[in-house]
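Show me any protein, fold above all:
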Amino acid sequence: MTTTVLPARPVPVRAGRSPRERRSHRRRWLLTAGLTAVAILVVFPLYWMVVSALTPGGQSQSSEFYLWPDAPTTGNFTEVFATQPVWHWLGNSFLVATVGTALSVCVSLGAGYALAKYRFRGRGLLYALFLVTIMIPIQVTLVPAFLVVARLGLVDSPWAVILPTLFDVVGIFIARQFMLGVPDALIEAARLDGAGELRTFFRVVLPSCGPLVGVLVILGFMNRWNDFLWPLVVLQGNESLTVPVGLSTLTSNPAFSSPWGAVMAVATVAVVPLLVVFLVFQRTFVQGIASTGIK
């Protein structure tokens, strides 16, 4: 019995990359390097803030460059939280940001729905007037708004910060653009089934606005948490201040040997709520921005 030995198949030799593949590979590496450099530029201020908060007073005032302190310490946190009402500042900011954002989102959703789905005389003019108010600087309305708040007796209270910011033109614009994509046939079908206007809005329109709500929550919470000028005008007592205004008082406070260490310590703690809110709503935020831009 004879066995036949088949000749071995030649192993194909892979040719080198074509010029097009080499160019694509080079562009991909350049894009990765560029994005990495941009990411470092964005993250480095946050890293430096944490490093400065952990740096002892003497080293933080020196002109020597360092990427990590020789002896990290939490003394800046202990000192500023023991001598200043930082917890009151954080509580005030959290109250203003959460309540103001919740009420502003409700106003933006209602106004956006009305401007997108209701037909009434003067709708275009009203919407144009809304957009014009974006170009008015806050310094123009600062004194009239303060006089109104003073007449209502709200000075030095959280409501003095919350109420004037309920009407968010940018939020209304984003809500209108998003709701233009909600099918009119869906709303008409709900009305034919006997649903009233409120039931149509809450049962049909609102469930499809999850990405929109994520966008409005993140933008609203961030703007109110970081707001400085208006709280500086209407809040007066040291325990009534919000975090940005309270931080401005630390730089001239003689109680600290290293005011910038105290400032960075409070700033490090103040960043945490913003990160938490963004991480919770990041997926809907990206979807909402993309949908609003497409529509």
